[in-house]
């Protein structure tokens, strides 16, 4: 066989083949991840979207239909509007608290010598090893009138009469913050770990006092991490249903609570699905806003 | 006169746990002087630099910059500027912003900052790179930005923390020459930490050789090389051959006690000796020199400019750098000679 004929045979179909493989290759490479995402995230949301247009007649879970009634009902329902406000407020406050505490904690672990690190990381992992229900039981020991908090405050002389913080919005806020803190901490720690600690010394060396260094160097370098940690906490806080309803007052109706009520209490699956879709879309919008705000930083900053 | 000193270290001491990192270190750096701290890793040179910069507090002793005590001041109130090993540029700031940083922190008027930044970047030959980010630059360029960022604030003393050790050889030599040129042109005062004796020799006004937290010798490079104060300084700076010898009533033996044919111009007292000679000062086939040793040629290495001939005499191994080929083959017994001035003996 001569080399010339082989080259000629390869030459002519080559352009078409490279075109097709170039166009297909990324999709082929992505397909396993794409299939998993579609099967486990895309399809359920699609089913839920379809469910939200069904009708609810008598005491049946749902009747196949195509109606906007469930969405129209939300616009007129003050309970739902209040729940949106309650959920957003609670999620926002607890996310801000989480980010501040998580940031301080992650910075501390980052700055401390390596030998402390394992102990701190193990400490942060602890809450993740306990189920949410057990943690709620823990708070039930902590917040009531005869609980740990009240006892500690009275015996330390800060207050004279026992107090109960159980079933208050504050308890719900503390509970939510506690649940979201570990995730926030690990996100921020990974961001801090990517920073060369010498830049802090360089900043001090050039005449910047500690606060100035924080503002000029550390904060800009961790901006992306703060946004990611906030987004993570916010999603979690918006979606969590058990903690706020178990620790908060009876009147603390979050969207999670309303969905649960529609689903399990009133057996109204289409309405529950419609609530869920609105919640999902709302969270997606918040995420997009956070991304837009945090991607303002320079394109190439290592 | 105290007012000619840029930096004075007075009996500085710092221990970490039980380990004394800096032990009784005193140095007086005159204005415009370039002093190098040279030593192996763990010799306390970087710790000394960090004490001067204010990143560590001394346990005892005083640090004076331009005559004023600074050892109680935090880093950001000291008139020093450090060039770090990794550069430590701010990755989120452009080159111009990096260089301007120290000026802004020192409250220099906004109108004066831009021309000074431009001038500093000109000096390190990086004009036109103002808008780049550190991630877009090479290692050598980053170190030049770090140099500009430190020099632009005109500190009382510049502190170099092994700034070239992360670069490859050719870049290291190039930047070394550049720092030397800048020092000659501008005349800044500097402390330069390195474990590379070539760097220390090439750049310094004075070299301080450090070992386990102490200064073994501080002097001009030629003096440190030519008249080392101790065996450690001799072996740390430059290459050397060590002849471990037992002397007994004028006769020499190797460490095992086997007799070797060693003739010395000045006899040594009985006992164990370590004789040192630089390989470049040893000469082959020179039975006429005052000091000589008969040794067997073992093998030859080609090093480019010279051949390195490895010899053995009993347990003693030595090597001679010699230009061109010699008439001997491995196994031949050869006369190696050297002058008395080129030899030091320690016991």
TrEMBL record, chain A:
Membrane topology recorded in Swiss-Prot or TrEMBL: Multi-pass membrane protein
Record-annotated ABC transmembrane type-1 domain positions: 84-290
InterPro entries: MetI-like, MetI-like_sf
Major place of residence: membrane
Pfam family name, one: BPD_transp_1
Location of the protein in the cell: Cell membrane
Record GO biological process: transmembrane transport
Keywords: Cell membrane, Membrane, Transmembrane, Transmembrane helix, Transport
Coiled-coil blocks: none
Gene Ontology annotations for the cellular component aspect, listed alphabetically: plasma membrane
Protein family (similarity comment): Belongs to the binding-protein-dependent transport system permease family. CysTW subfamily.
PANTHER family: ABC TRANSPORTER PERMEASE PROTEIN, INNER MEMBRANE ABC TRANSPORTER PERMEASE PROTEIN YDCU-RELATED-RELATED
This protein's name: ABC transmembrane type-1 domain-containing protein
Organism of provenance: Metarhizobium album
């Amino acid at each position: 066989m001569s080399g010339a004929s082989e080259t000629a045979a390869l030459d002519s179909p080559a352009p078409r083949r490279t075109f097709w493989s170039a166009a297909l290759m990324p999709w082929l490479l992505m397909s396993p991840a794409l299939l998993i995402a579609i099967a486990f995230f895309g399809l359920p949301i699609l089913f839920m979207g379809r469910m939200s247009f069904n009708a609810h007649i008598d005491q049946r879970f749902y009747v196949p239909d195509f109606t906007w009634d469930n969405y129209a009902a939300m616009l007129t329902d003050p309970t739902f509007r209040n729940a949106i406000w309650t959920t957003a407020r609670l999620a926002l406050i607890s996310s801000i608290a989480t980010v501040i505490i998580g940031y301080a904690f992650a910075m501390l672990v980052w700055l401390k010598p390596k030998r402390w690190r394992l102990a701190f990381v193990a400490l942060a992992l602890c809450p993740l090893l306990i189920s949410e229900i057990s943690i709620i039981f823990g708070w039930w020991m902590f917040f009531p009138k005869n609980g740990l908090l009240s006892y500690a405050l009275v015996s330390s002389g800060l207050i004279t009469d026992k107090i109960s913080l159980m079933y208050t919005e504050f308890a719900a806020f503390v509970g939510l913050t506690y649940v979201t803190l570990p995730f926030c901490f690990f996100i921020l720690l990974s961001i801090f770990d990517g920073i060369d600690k010498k830049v802090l010394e360089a900043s001090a060396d050039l005449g910047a006092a500690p606060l100035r260094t924080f503002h000029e160097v550390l904060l800009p370098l961790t901006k992306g991490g703060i946004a990611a940690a906030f987004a993570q906490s916010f999603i979690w806080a918006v979606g969590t249903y058990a903690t706020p309803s178990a620790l908060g007052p009876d009147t603390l109706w979050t969207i999670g609570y309303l969905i649960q009520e529609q689903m399990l209490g009133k057996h109204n699956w289409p309405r529950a699905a419609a609530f869920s879709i609105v919640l999902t879309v709302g969270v997606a919008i918040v995420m997009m806003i956070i991304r837009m705000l945090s991607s303002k930083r320079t394109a190439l900053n290592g | 006169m105290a007012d000619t000193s840029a930096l004075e270290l007075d009996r500085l001491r710092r221990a970490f746990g039980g380990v004394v990192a800096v032990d009784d270190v005193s140095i007086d750096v005159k204005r415009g002087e370039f002093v190098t701290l040279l030593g192996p890793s763990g010799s306390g040179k970087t710790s000394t630099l960090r004490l001067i910069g204010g990143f560590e507090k001394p346990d005892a002793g005083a640090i004076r910059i331009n005559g004023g005590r600074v050892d109680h001041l935090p880093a950001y109130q000291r008139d020093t500027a450090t060039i770090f090993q990794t550069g430590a540029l701010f990755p989120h700031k452009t080159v111009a912003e990096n260089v301007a940083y120290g000026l802004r922190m020192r409250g220099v008027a906004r109108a004066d900052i831009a021309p000074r930044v431009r001038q500093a970047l000109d000096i390190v030959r990086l004009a036109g790179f103002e808008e780049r980010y550190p991630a877009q630059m090479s290692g050598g360029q980053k170190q030049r930005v770090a140099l500009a960022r430190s020099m632009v604030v005109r500190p009382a003393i510049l502190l170099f923390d092994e700034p070239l050790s992360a670069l490859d050889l050719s870049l290291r030599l190039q930047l070394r020459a550049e720092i030397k040129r800048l020092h000659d042109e501008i005349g800044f005062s500097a402390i330069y930490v390195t474990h590379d004796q070539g760097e220390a020799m090439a750049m310094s006004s004075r070299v301080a050789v450090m070992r386990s937290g102490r200064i073994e010798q501080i002097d001009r490079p030629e003096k440190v090389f030519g008249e080392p104060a101790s065996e450690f300084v001799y072996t740390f700076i430059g290459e050397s051959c060590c002849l471990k010898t037992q002397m007994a009533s004028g006769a020499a033996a190797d460490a095992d006690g086997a007799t070797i044919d060693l003739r010395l111009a000045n006899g040594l007292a009985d006992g164990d000796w370590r004789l040192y000679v630089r390989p470049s000062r040893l000469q082959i086939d020179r039975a006429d020199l005052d000091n000589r040793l008969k040794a067997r040629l073992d093998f030859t290495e080609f090093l480019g400019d010279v051949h390195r001939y490895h010899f053995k005499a009993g347990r003693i191994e030595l090597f001679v750098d010699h230009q061109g080929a010699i008439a001997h083959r491995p196994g031949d017994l050869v006369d190696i000679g050297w002058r008395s001035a080129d030899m030091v003996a320690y016991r």
